[in-house]
Amino acid sequence: MFKSLQTRILLYSLLIASVPLLVLGIISYGSQRSLLEKEAKNALNAGSLNIVNETYSYLNERISDVKLMSVNSAIINPGYSKEEKSDELKKFIDAKGNYYGVLHLDMEGNVIADTSNKMIGDNLAKRIWFKEAIEGHEFLSDVYKTRAFAEPIIALSAPVYDHSGK
């Protein structure tokens, strides 16, 4: 097939030169692949950390909103009517824009003010967020579905104290 010596030498020379290039290419590919994988992992970790921080910041702002609302004079003053309290809650929602609804419950868990006016009189004393607020704690629930809303929600609660601290 390759009868001339010159052709054989040329082929062997090409083969001898190609093998090291091929080996070098394989090694280079492996190291670059590893480096690219590390860079991709680092970028994903940085992105996920950023999302976690933004979520944490957002939820802390919502807890602060609830704490702020729990000391609102219209809410803690027993002289305000249920309608006035509901109006104050609606103003809160309009100002913040992050809430589906806000409720104000009495010590027994009865809804006394509601932004939708659909739940006034309902007793929600068995809800964990109510129990936590009665014990004096702010509460942030896990995400869950409810019949009242089509979208998943997070419930937040905070105790509301009157002027005497009760």
Describe the structure using short key phrases.
mainly alpha, 166 residues, Beta-Lactamase
The fold-level CATH name is Beta-Lactamase
Per CATH, the superfamily is PAS domain
Mean pLDDT: 87
Strand order of the largest sheet: 1-2
Q: How many H/I helices?
A: 4
Protein model, in words:
The longest helix is centred in the first third of the chain and has 66 residues, at 5-70. The protein has a two-stranded antiparallel ribbon. Strands 3-6 form a two-stranded antiparallel sheet. It is built from four helices and six strands; from the N terminus they run αααββαββββ. The termini are far apart. It has one domain (1-166): 2-Layer Sandwich (Beta-Lactamase), CATH 3.30.450. Strand 1 (103-105) and strand 2 form a beta hairpin. The chain is mainly α and 166 residues long. The model has no long low-confidence stretch (mean pLDDT 87).
Question: Summary?
Answer:
By secondary structure, this protein is mainly α.
Task: Show the helix and strand layout.
Blueprint: H1 5-70, H2 73-76, H3 82-96, E1 103-105, E2 111-114, H4 128-134, E3 139-140, E4 144-146, E5 149-153, E6 156-157
Antiparallel strand pairs: 1-2, 3-6, 4-5
